[in-house]
From TrEMBL:
Function field: Catalyzes two sequential steps in the biosynthesis of coenzyme A. In the first step cysteine is conjugated to 4'-phosphopantothenate to form 4-phosphopantothenoylcysteine. In the second step the latter compound is decarboxylated to form 4'-phosphopantotheine.
Cofactor: Mg(2+); FMN
Pathway annotation: Cofactor biosynthesis; coenzyme A biosynthesis; CoA from (R)-pantothenate: step 3/5; Cofactor biosynthesis; coenzyme A biosynthesis; CoA from (R)-pantothenate: step 2/5
First-to-last residue of the parent protein present: 194 to 411 of 418
Binding site for CTP: 98, 108, 126-129, 145, 159, 163
Gene behind the chain: coaBC
UniProt name for this protein: Coenzyme A biosynthesis bifunctional protein CoaBC
């Protein structure tokens, strides 16, 4: 039906940051609000899809009709994503922390009086998008996001190949301070695929979501 173009389809979305523990009270994170990913999950549900939203720690309500799985870390996010397969389309919007502490401490780290902080060793997190790109249950359509400040299309094309995605939605996060995309309500995006680049200038995140889901349904 025209009002439910994704009826019968399963759409998997990741959103938000991840939190990587250093000790019981401290973590590594980033400034992702989760707004764009939640808007995409909401738009997919409005289009009639069954939607699984794997969300990092964010302060956002669950959109109507969406099944939400809350996670903290990148490794938990990967496990939840694999658990949710198969999916007809997967849209990986989460700003996954690239690194985690090599050994999260069981007890709160204490200053030892020497004036020298304890060294913090990092290890790389799994790349969830790239894992799906070569997965036995690879979704039929695999979409990644990328925040870029320069050579946007070129960097996005490289990311397409590296991650095995079908589209990369590149956020233009350049521009004056205060016009920040992170946490804000609007976005300028370039959708890069093997067929070329489509650019949507300065749209509210909800409009980006609606248009992206129309494109997924097309
Ligand atoms: O490499 P970069 O972090 O710029 O790639 C961004 C894209 O890859 C986003 O779609 C993001 O959700 C996904 N990603 C991921 N797992 C990671 C890092 C990024 O799924 N560990």
């Amino acid at each position: 039906a025209a009002d439910a173009p994704l009826a019968g389809r399963h759409v998997l979305v990741t959103a938000g940051p991840t939190h990587e523990p250093i000790d019981p009270v401290r973590y590594i994170a980033n400034r992702s609000s989760g707004k764009q990913g939640f808007a995409i999950a909401a738009a997919a549900a409005r289009a009639g899809a069954r939607v699984t939203l794997v969300a990092g720690p964010v302060h956002l309500p669950t959109p109507p009709g969406v099944t939400r799985v809350d996670v903290e870390t990148a490794r938990e996010m990967l496990a939840a994503v694999e658990q949710a397969l198969p999916a007809d389309a997967a849209i990986m919007v989460a700003a996954v922390a690239d690194w985690r502490a090599a050994d999260a401490a069981d007890q709160k780290l204490k200053k030892d009086g020497s004036g020298k902080p304890a060294p913090l060793a990092l290890v790389e997190n799994p790349d969830i998008l790239a894992t799906l790109g070569r997965h036995a249950k690879r979704p039929g359509l695999l979409v990644g996001f990328a925040a870029e400040t320069q050579k946007i299309a070129e960097h996005a094309r490289a990311k397409l190949a590296r991650k095995g995605a079908d589209w990369i939605v590149a956020n233009d996060v350049s521009g004056p301070p205060g016009s920040s995309v992170m946490g804000g309500d609007s976005n300028s995006v370039h959708i890069v695929s093997k067929d070329g680049v489509e650019s949507w200038d300065h749209l509210p995140k909800d409009a980006v979501a609606t248009r992206l889901i129309e494109k997924v349904a097309h």
